[in-house]
C-alpha cells in the first residue's frame, strides 16, 4: 500500500500543481471531515445515489483520505450516528481548512442532524 504523501504528489504534480475535485468528491471529503457517513450513502427516496466507491477511491488516490485502521459500527436506523469509514490525511485536513476559509465547505445533512441531536441532548440535560 502506498503512502498518502506519494499519492498526493503523484496526482497533483505533473507539469503544474492542480487538485481537481468533483462536486460528489467535495461532498464526501466534507462528510469525512465531519466523521459522518456521506449522505448519498442511503439509497432511499427519489434521488439516485452518487457512486461513493468511486469518490472514495478518487480521494484516496489524491492522498486526501485513507481508510480508518479500526471501525466502529453505528446504528443503521440513525444515519447521522454512523461514523465515516475513512479519515482525513494531513493534506486532507489542510484542504478542508481551505474549503472552510473560502466558504466552499459543504456540510453534510448527517453532520447537521448530529449537531442538532447533541444540542437537544444538552438542552434536555439542563
Task: Write up what this structure looks like.
The chain is mostly helical and 126 residues long. The chain has one domain. It is built from five helices and two strands. The chain has a two-stranded antiparallel ribbon. Helix 2 packs across helix 3. The longest helix is centred in the last third of the chain and has 17 residues. The protein starts with a helix and ends with a helix. The mean pLDDT is 81.
Rg measurement, Å:
16 Å
> What is the count of structural domains?
1
Number of strands: 2
- Termini separation: 49 Å
Count of helical stretches: 5
Strands in their spatial order, largest beta sheet: 1-2
Mean pLDDT: 81
Provide the β-strand percentage band. Answer: under 5%
- Multimeric organization: single chain
Please outline the major beta sheet: 2 strands, antiparallel
Task: Give the low-pLDDT segments.
Answer: none
In N-to-C order, the SSE pattern is HHHEEHH
Portion of residues in helices?
40-55%
Q: Quick one: overall form? A: elongated
> Structural class per helix/strand content?
mainly alpha
Amino acid at each position: 500500500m502506498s503512502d498518502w504523501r506519494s499519492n498526493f504528489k503523484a496526482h497533483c504534480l505533473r507539469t503544474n500543481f492542480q487538485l481537481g475535485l468533483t462536486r460528489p468528491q467535495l461532498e464526501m471529503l466534507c462528510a469525512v471531515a465531519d466523521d459522518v457517513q456521506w449522505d448519498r450513502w442511503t439509497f432511499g427516496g427519489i434521488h439516485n445515489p452518487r457512486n461513493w466507491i468511486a469518490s472514495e477511491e478518487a480521494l484516496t488516490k489524491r492522498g486526501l483520505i485513507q481508510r480508518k485502521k479500526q471501525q466502529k459500527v453505528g446504528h443503521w436506523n440513525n444515519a447521522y450516528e454512523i461514523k465515516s469509514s475513512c479519515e482525513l490525511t494531513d493534506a486532507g485536513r489542510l484542504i478542508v481548512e481551505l474549503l472552510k476559509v473560502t466558504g466552499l465547505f459543504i456540510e453534510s445533512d448527517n453532520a447537521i442532524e448530529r449537531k442538532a441531536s447533541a444540542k437537544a441532548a444538552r438542552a434536555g440535560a439542563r
